[in-house]
């Protein structure tokens, strides 16, 4: 009778465990980087930078390789938090409650734009701030839509309890709202806002243009990676502002660039341009540096972090909005100074503004 | 390498150890990786430690959340209701399949339609479902039904068809009417097989449930998993997934026990 002893079985198992995890050590020196992006009007310059060769040119100048990966929004941030990509586009809110709250020290390398109408609360039947009480409101919970609704309610002396929030997937929120007349209110983002608004009987009750500068779109980079590899920061910033200068030029060149971006965002040039109108792009590095260094951003970040805390986004155990430290360009820290995981760093954008980046 | 031979014999302890080995390996792999990640970053959320997961369970199951709800139970109840209604409605699938198998009229009307319907990926029709049935409970129940109804109906049909013709004739000669043959002769003997099919489709039902809840909901196990993903609360997601698996396993077990008890003859079959 052949018997496998329990002891040798255990030994075998331990070996397998060892082999599995011996390979898990990360490499140190890097020359190849992965950057994730997802479709949103303010981020379309990235795929354009790649397609036009601008990104490769800047990467070559700094002797590195940059690979852009397109993903779904939440999945892209999850990949960033898991360390699968080195940098990723996201809003200030997700940067705070996904990487920063998970202990991934992240730097806002580029302040690209803020939403200036791209996020909106749309209603039918002429609903107003007074009559919205008790209504069902569809939105993707815990996103900037949810944040926007809170800001709207706050400004009208209401609380979230005064309405009924229904979590609805962003992939179907548009058609669902349009086909159900019983749904009176929806909060969503572009291009969905644009599609819904085109229908008769729909009005815009509130939008991010009413709270300008609060929903900021950023390029977040892992702080450790950036410190070890300043070349990555320089190449990304350099490429970004070269695209910005192409976009802000008028005429055929700019239209061609915008056309490429529109195609990649699966919208028409007209639609894309109209979305750009509700996006406050910082076309120059100087403007972005000024916004990031001003007093307004601290006040806006405070709104955002208080919202995140109230909804448990900073972790169920968080005692206050102060658990994550947010560092500003002047060196000041909002929140826990010993746990700074969110940094606004304008040094790279400054180099671009002063024309000090190697091409 | 004798232990790999066809004639290898293992004692009860070794068998138990062998059966446990893959479970142990998975759990060990998880906690080793989690440990490594936590050494690099004590705040890691992607692979929470057992302590963090326990806290997640505590927070969702035994403490009121900001709305004053015990989330895990609220979610479990919401999902269980949806699954319960769908399971009850599957009775219709069984009846339809039974009639298709025995009555040429039902077969002519429904068989090809259901066969085609079975191949339609229900998930792709989600937006249409929400437009027809609204955002409430109905659309979620309908999605689960659309997903598994045809499978159950077709399976019942095949099994009813497979009942030997002689038996039905025998029933007739003994004086049974159509109703007696349908519900007294055929149904009872295909029932254990049908129950097995329903049991094996629990997994599909749970998948459809999650899909429906991810689209529009205010409570439910799938709903919660999708919402807390927004702040990478794996310490909640992992216990939720384990909880769902456990519930599905228990439901499966109950059906198996029921078959064993009610249809004792089936074991020998």
TrEMBL record, chain A:
Report the GO terms under cellular component. periplasmic space
Kindly indicate where the leader peptide sits in this chain.
1-29
State if Lyase is listed as a keyword: no
Q: What is this protein called?
A: ABC transporter substrate-binding protein
Q: Which domain of life is it from?
A: Bacteria
* Ranges of residues in domain SsuA/THI5-like: 130-239
* Organism expressing this protein natively: Acanthopleuribacter pedis
Which family is it part of? Belongs to the bacterial solute-binding protein SsuA/TauA family.
TrEMBL record, chain B:
Q: Name one Pfam family in it.
A: BPD_transp_1
Entry keyword set? Cell membrane, Membrane, Transmembrane, Transmembrane helix, Transport
Enumerate the PANTHER family for this protein: ABC TRANSPORTER PERMEASE PROTEIN MJ0413-RELATED, ALKANE SULFONATE ABC TRANSPORTER-RELATED, MEMBRANE SUBUNIT
Q: Which regions span the lipid bilayer?
A: 83-106, 205-225, 237-259
Q: Provide a GO biological process annotation.
A: transmembrane transport
Say yes or no: keyword Transmembrane helix present.
yes
Q: What family does the Swiss-Prot or TrEMBL record give for this protein?
A: Belongs to the binding-protein-dependent transport system permease family.
Task: Quote the protein name from its UniProt record.
Answer: ABC transporter permease subunit
Q: Which residues form the ABC transmembrane type-1 domain?
A: 79-259
Cite a GO CC annotation: plasma membrane
The answer to whether keyword Acyltransferase applies is no
| Chief location category | membrane
Location in the cell reads: Cell membrane
Q: What is the recorded membrane topology of this protein?
A: Multi-pass membrane protein
